[in-house]
Fold each of these.
Amino acid sequence: MTKKTMKFKTELEQLLHLITHSLYSHREVFLRELISNACDAIDKVRFEGLNNPELLDGEADWKISIRADKEAKTLTISDNGIGMSREQVVENLGTIAHSGTKAFLARAKEIGAENNPELIGQFGVGFYASFMVADNVTVVSKAHGEEAVKWESTGTGSFTLSDADKAHRGTDITLHLKEDAEEYLDEWTIRSTVKKFSDFLEHPVVLFTTEKDEEKGTEEEKEEQINTQKAIWLRQKSEIKAEEYAEFYKHISHDMADPAETIHYNAEGAIEFKALLFIPEAKPFDMMMNNDPKAHLNLYVQRVFISNEFDNLLPGYLRFVKGVVDSSDLPLNVSREILQENPMLDKIRKNLVGRVLKTLAQMKTKNYDKFLKFHEEFSTILKEGLQSDWENKEKIADLLLFETTAKESGEKTCLADYVENMADGQEEILYLAGENRTSIENSPYLESFKADGKEVLLMIDPIDDFVIPQLMEYKGKKLKAVNKGDLEEDAEKLKKEEKQFKGFIGFAKDLLDGVKEVKLTTRLKDSAAVLVGDEYSMSPHIEEMMRRMGQEVPKRESVLELNPEHPVVQKVQALYDADKKDPKVGTLTKLLHDQAVIASGAKLDDPAGFAARLNEVLAEE
Ligand code: ADP
């Protein structure tokens, strides 16, 4: 093959620019990223080799080597892992692996992430971090049964590909260090950086140094393993420092911040495994970008990394949890597909879910401020569990916080406290979902509850309207949306009015489009009219959201409830009784409906008609 120059995808060029300029103060992470990749490459070939031993080329002495050449000013990180074919090199190092890059860049600009290394770090800059310290990077790689290939780039727009000489499977990455990064040629710096980031890696990281004997004129190569290689999850909890946990967390999550919570335990009994789980402090960037609904937990079997793609190890609603599970009960020598079916995984999952939920419950009671932050970041994801994990529904519900009419805006309550404070004789947990607190706080739906001193939960997370109805009840109390279904009304109280309004109600029902019923209500105090949906209907603000996303929304059939004590309602009814044909009756009835639509948070179908009606009435006064 002759030498060939290829251009990076444009997004990649932008990303490189962003990385090299904004992560400057964190640039030592380049070593962590390269060693992590080397470690992954070894894990891959070791796993593939279980079923396909010839892939190993007779090799089992796994090693990640680091060589510093002070004269040439190069640092080389080598592994004897799976290697890459020519196509894989182009695919992995020429185009960006993360599909959300473009969106990421746009968002990074929007929120000013250029100056925020934590945010960029969360994205996982990987291999490209090399360009923070190097002005030229060479990758020589050889996969089993493939020719070796050389990739070279200065990180500015293009890379070249050419043939290479390499006898063994694996990858060598050579960085020609920038002048201001020559400290990474220093053994002490290398040793301390590796210790910090990669001490627990299960493969040896070996530093090769050459020692010159000036007198004899000879050179001797010395090798020294610099990581202790103790899988952190196998160690005693009492021996592990918080910094070690944090570094391990950063290694598996690519997060730059420390975890909010660390859960480390041995499960014993029917199933035995070790788990080390972390709850991040904030939503990582890739979770925001890809919105991958799957949980990724690293599964090891007897310390051999198997996969981080088992859907059934943790449910999707706990996908913010990062960590490792190591089981010696699972069979090692099988394919991932077969392992995926193993009933043992279900048992492990149940156990992990229980632990995570218990930890969150403890956080809520013991460290409420920390829990609030967790809730802010992850409750939207957690709530998905109300729909998918029936067994743990109540435990998940225990962890949810909501705004409430009983507290100032921004302050929250939980369902347990709500139930505790329920008014005498109150049987249901009342809630109203809407777009934001201000829009629902003054909603007509709340009038009667306010008057009765009943607390109503104000749900303003868009997902609430989808998932809260799934909860059905909490501690034996039914959940009830105050803008849906019937209220317990004082039927006696309305008897007289019903007779009086009967004719007008029939008229209004025939006149109004999309209204299946018109009736009187005691739920209103100051407002004249309100629209009420079916118990299981979508809320108007969700309909509105779907419409904005271009989705078709079925025409709603709602109930228009009128307040017989309101002067406007009384006036229209009186006009109707005086003269059924009076055109004003139609106009005013439609206006009553219009205002109920607006107050519900939905949009008017015919705003121009509304304006005309309003003007007609205003002109008269
Ligand atoms: P990430 O590791 O997050 O996927 P990187 O940019 O670090 O992203 O690497 C891109 C891809 O290049 C990796 O997913 C892997 O397939 C490949 N790769 C990187 N380093 C090596 C290596 N030392 N050996 C084999 N493949 C590698």
Amino acid sequence: MSTAEFRRWVCDACGYIYNEAEGDPDSGLAPGTRYEDIPEDWQCPLCGLSKGDLRLLPEVAAAPAVRRPSAGKTGKASKCKGGDDYVVIVGAGIAGWSIAEAIRAHDQETPLLLISACEGISYPKPAISTAIAHGKGADDLAELDAESHAAQLGLEVRTETRVLKIDTNKRRLTTAKGGIQYGKLILALGAQQRELPLQGDAADSVLRVNDLMTYRKMRQRLDQGVKHVTILGAGLIGTEFAEDLSAGGYQVTVIDPTGHPLASLLPDSVAEQLQQQLQDKGVQWLFGNTLDSLEHDGDHLRATVSSGMAIETDLVISAAGLLPNTALAEKAGIAVNNGIATDSLMHTSVEDVYAIGDCASVEGKVFAYIEPIRRQAATIAADLQGRTEPFDSRPPLVRVKTPSFPLTVCPPDHPDEVSRVTHDGQPGRLDYYEGERLVGFVLSGEMAGTGANLYRSL
Ligand code: FE
């Protein structure tokens, strides 16, 4: 087989891509290792699903140099000002790069410009919450800089360029570095951690970690003699961070107003097991509490929670839930409903403007997980080519990366309509039924690696 025939496989649960050309050297798979030659006990390095759960990705044609006058600037962080024929993507997270890739899979001609407020580095975001245990720093997670990625895909990129305003009548973006014209606009603005109201002279020191840049900041702070970390929020990110930091030797306290970790995702019986497993690893849970104030106290911080209890800590990380970034769209008169409102074709309320990923709310629902992003990208790419492939808003497949108690969850879409929850005779498996129809499941412990096939059968 020639190198041209190397294939790529995706882990739908976490977005990891197994590229045969690159292999997975960390797991002992040399570059060039074919999918068929991967041992059966290999696991997704990001989330632990099994080989059989990977899905073959459609081929992306190798991007030729863009056949345009601006070709010389392709790949460089250019001063490209767009044009009426341009598809302009705002945002360089997984959603931004995924839509660029989906468009280029079928269309090498349309000029594409990707604009990023940050450096635009590509990295596997789910790996952020297990990096310490894997001995990886922030820089080890970076896969590709914006210029190289853009060159691969045959598009133009403008990094560290913040979009300040969208004029949907003139199809024009205002940035701090000049105006940009678009024909079609795709908003991939992402989300940010919710900011919690907080008193005290150290309230500003709370870190909200949701991307590589803020993660790098967190690791820098951890290296400055931190012994105890307080995490606000026992959702997916907070719980994964708790185990990872604990594995890295830090003392960890998690504060959450609910009664269990992942309370919105797990039934109590399973959440209690997760809670116990992490507690056995040394994680301290403060449920039924919120953080009221954070104050400097000598070399440390003093965190006072709503019950009145005070703890000494060195670093507070907020993982209190994601809020879609909608301000830019809202200011432009684009309809917002939780996220930037779209129909099932990812159209916003304004013609030729799309939204994708964590910033988008598809028919009222925000899909803040990795798996749906690629499907949303396929929907937009098809629409741009005049094909109609509506986004199927089925419940997501969520992989909880807590090695001491791994979980694979497909939360039922309408929890109120679940008529039956059954163990199916197997420990580590819970099935949700609406009537006779399987509508969701929770797999835990050793069962957790087997979720993707069950998911496809829903
Ligand atoms: Fe994975």
